[in-house]
Amino acid sequence: MKKVKKELNVLSSFVSLILNLIPALYAFSCIIPVVWIFFCTFKTMPEFAANVLALPKSFLNLANYQYVFTKAPLLQSMFNTIRITFFVLLLVILIAFINGYFLSRFKFRFRKFIAGLYTCGLFIPIHAILVPTYIIFSFLKINNHWYSTILPVVCMELTTTTFLVMGYVSSVPRELEEAAYIDGSSFSRTLFTIVLPIVKPVLVTCGIIVFFHSWNEFPYSLILFDKERFYTLPLALMRFKGDYVTDYPRMMTFMFVSIVPALLIYVLFSKHIIKGMMTGAIKG
Amino acid sequence: MKKKWFIVSIVLALSMLLCITGCGSKESPATSDKPADTSANASNASSSQTNADGQKEKVTLTIIHEHSEEAAQHIPSSAGFRAMLDKFKAEHPWVTLEETIISNAEIGNKYLALIAADDLPDVTYVRYPWLEDMAGNGMLADLTDYVNPDDYVDGLFSVTYNGRVYGLPNKHSVFNLILYNEKMWKEAGFDKFPETIDELIEAGKVFKSMGKTAIAVGNTGKWFAVSYFASPLMYDYCGKEWVESMLAGETKYSWTDESFVNAMAKLQEMTVLFNEDINMKDDIWAAGWYMQGNAAAHAVGSWGVDTCKNMSSDYPEVWNNTRVIILPAANNKTPTLISATGGAGTGVNSKLKGAEFQAALECCLQISSKDYAKFMAERASPTPVKIDLDFSGRGIQYEDLAAILNGSKDVGLNFNDYFKPNLSSVLQEEVQNLFAGTTTPQAVAEKMQLTYDNMIKK
Amino acid sequence: MKDCLQPKRSVMIAYLLPGVLIYILILIVPTIMALIFSFFKFTSIKSFSFVGLQNYITLFNDPSVLTALKNNLFLIVVCLIGQIGIAFVLACILSSSKVILANLYRTVIYFPVTLSAVVIGYVWSMVYDFNYGILVSFLKAVGRPDLAAPWLAQNDTVMLCVCVPLVWQYVGFHLVVMLSAMTTIEKDIYHMSEIDGANGFQKAIYITLPLIKNTIFICVLLCISANMKVFDHIMAMTNGGPGYSSNVLALYAYKVSFSQMNMGYGSTISVAILVVTLVIFGAASKITSIIKGND
């Protein structure tokens, strides 16, 4: 009897090992690109051209960092990116929450039309509408302002986020809302004080997705911005790509410095997500 | 509950703050982060527009170009462009120049959107394949009365539409050059560099058997092989008249002519010369590969000599043995120097009038001036403005380059820069297929003819 | 019976209208314009000519379109199995109690999603590099250097190479979405099934899978749509090459519109993307409703 138990224990610890190893290996493979970029920031251009994968000759070669922080418009473009991302997040989360809730909970006359409308975003390749968008914006004179790309980016993200919220809300039971209604709460009040906290996990998920899409957004920014002082980080990155020659180490330094704050914010907020998810699970 | 309102008020405050900074920066004068804006420099003044007080009328010009400060550090033509803009700004203190910088890879897309919306900047790029849409639709100002074609290497062909001049050429590049390591060729048994393509191909087989690459090329950008090899082969087999007839959209000849098919066949034979991963590597890798001594030669354009020179401190031995030569000709011809003037030119938006037009015109003239030619010649780079090229004292590689530039009698047009984009992109794709061995010269010719027919039909 | 929760008509309109208006102006109107362009030869608002169905005829006769479409479909199939399959397996593993550091893994596995396609393309072309790549080094280490080839430069292997980074990058996305959906599942269901003797595998298939069905369906739709529109990755890794062998519809539309300055035909290809995506969606929905009907 004891022997069988021992064998079962060995088997179960073996299974545990495998279960831990698989995600660990996959996670390791996900860190490597970031690490590689980090290594490349210390290389000089000839060093890089010689052997792309090798370790840098000297980890103390800070010339690229010096350049990026002093000569390149890092702070300006980061500020622009942060500003646009902030407003995009605000609008997307608000609109997706409202849309997702309504579409999931209620049946009303235009429900199918609105659901279909938001689905359209999935079929439309962005480059097809770049030039028409530019023509419209140019006609309305709303291009080349600091806020020009906010609405387009919001619209690109609305489809995914609306459907994620819809899916999530459909699995949340109605009892809490009905209880609040019986208690005399108005619709708006219920929406924002009862429903909003419950769907926080999916809103945070949406936030993460939208945050990085907005941070890395390029096509709309290229077409709609003319003035360099509105340039976002991906646009500012272009200055390193020359006609025939690209200074890769310097470009990667800029890339690394621009992605680090985003990753930091993500890592910080991921703790918040865990808390939110745990609370959600317990409450439910 | 209180916490919720606290968060909401923070968000609102933050939004307002960001909005205000946005609006604030919009109203303040155009301050850019580069030390490039005009200062209230009294100094010289040569323009004609003055108002009643005798002061120059203030003008703001927009320009969209690709020459960032970082690009200027590596590429002479970018450095030249920026130097000319600086000179213009110094001499025109009443002009505020608002620059937008977009990388070479994306600037075509940007201009396309601008052409589509008829929203060109004041000083605009002018590319030969765009002329029909830009000049043909009246978006460019006619500059014929302000320029002299004889000052320019190509007589302003690259910026002329329907007999009128609409721009000024800025870049002049030559494409079919070879940097070769004399020592490696000697060691393989070649005292001098092969003088015909067939000899070159034989040499390629020799190098291949030794496990080395004869000529390192990075063709992931697709246009390189067409510029370096397909264009000169076309001149060797089809001849100047054939090429110019096809460029003009005539039907006297066709792509399925035996001459073109033979050119493509020869190109496919040349595959033995190149590294196997030619289609997936980029040009800078190929330069590095050559400089490390892994390849006996490297195909370059005129800018490539500088690129390799910049690596020479790490690989002095290879550089000291490096010479420059034009690609040998095929079909018993003499080599044709493939060049392009006006990979970008500059022009003036037709909507400008008066002082603005004058300022924009002078800006374009400055960019393509003799000053530019002198600047480029000092850096051993060719220019569209006629000037005697003397690169002596810079190294034997540059003297080789000068000899080629000054001495070439036959000059041809680079396919990619002069043919319409849909035709050139088809050839670029097909050349990649030729190298990969997945198509035949005949099939390539037929595809080109099909595209060409569709193109001239409309 | 009318839903007691449902607010007044005016309230609903007030909430929904702003979003709808923005969406129509920014997304729908340009799309309609692109649709109209497809019937024209268009380069500029100053010069365009009506060509009727000419662009569509060209579309059906263009062999590059067929190659591109085949590549898109290939990517969709591979990514559906790869991205969603792997993400589901990882999601189940990470929510198991036996795994420590699950939150760390989840955070890190999302990292690739945050990187731009250019970076991903560059990193993976280094992996496939013929001279220095990790893959070639690995083959040499296991004694099979003969298998090394310039994979990205060969027509027959290029699509296989291209789909790996796509799968690898977006597993993190689906993982995060699925984990977030799994939080709605009450832990008690698992406890009860364990008492009944269910093992991990059975729990995943018979409990988790049905309960997050809606979310998985959304992931499927997003995966299909993203792979019909895939552009940046292909451009960064192979630029559609060699020749046309790794071309995809969105990249081809872009090249035709921008590089070839033929926006009319480019819009036609975009319309093709739209139609094919709709057809696939229709099929996917039909299949899902059949599965749902069988429950």
Write the layout of secondary structure elements.
The complex is a heterotrimer of chains A (284), B (458) and C (295).
Chain A: H1 2-40, H2 45-50, H3 63-70, H4 74-105, H5 111-119, H6 126-140, H7 150-170, H8 175-182, H9 187-198, H10 200-215, H11 219-224, H12 233-237, H13 248-283
Helix pairs in contact in A: 1-13, 3-13, 4-7, 4-10, 7-10, 8-9, 10-13
Chain B: H1 2-27, E1 59-65, H2 69-74, H3 76-91, E2 95-101, H4 104-116, E3 123-126, H5 131-134, E4 160-161, E5 164-165, E6 168-169, E7 172-174, E8 177-181, H6 182-187, H7 197-209, E9 213-216, H8 223-237, H9 240-247, H10 258-269, H11 283-291, E10 295-300, H12 304-311, H13 316-320, E11 322-326, E12 337-341, E13 345-348, H14 354-367, H15 370-378, H16 396-407, E14 411-413, H17 415-418, H18 421-436, H19 441-457
Parallel strand pairs in B: 1-2, 9-10, 12-14
Antiparallel strand pairs in B: 3-13, 4-5, 6-13, 7-12, 8-10, 8-11
Helix pairs in contact in B: 3-14, 3-15, 8-10, 8-18, 10-19, 11-12, 18-19
Chain C: H1 9-37, E1 40-44, E2 47-50, H2 54-61, H3 63-95, H4 102-109, H5 111-114, H6 117-127, H7 134-141, H8 155-182, H9 187-195, H10 200-211, H11 213-228, H12 232-237, H13 249-259, H14 263-294
Antiparallel strand pairs in C: 1-2
Helix pairs in contact in C: 1-14, 2-14, 3-8, 3-11, 11-14, 13-14
Inertia-based shape of chain B: globular
Helix-strand makeup class of chain A: mainly alpha
Sheet with the most strands, sense and barrel status of chain B = 4 strands, mixed
- Helical proportion of chain A? over 70%
Structure in a nutshell:
The complex is a heterotrimer of chains A (284), B (458) and C (295). Chain A contains 13 helices and no strands.
Account of the protein in words:
The complex is a heterotrimer of chains A (284), B (458) and C (295). Helix content of chain A is 75%, strand content 0%. Chain A has 284 residues and is mainly α. The C terminus of chain A is likely disordered. In chain B, helix 3 packs across helix 15, helix 8 packs across helix 10 and helix 18 runs antiparallel to helix 19. Chain B has a four-stranded mixed beta sheet. A three-stranded antiparallel beta sheet of chain B has the order 3-13-6, covered by helices on one side. In chain B, strands 7-12-14 form a three-stranded mixed beta sheet. Chain B is globular. Chain B has 458 residues and is α/β, with parallel strands linked by helices. Chain C has a single domain, classed as MetI-like fold, CATH 1.10.3720.10. Chain C has a two-stranded antiparallel ribbon with strand order 1-2. The mean pLDDT of chain C is 85. Chains in contact: A-B, A-C, B-C.
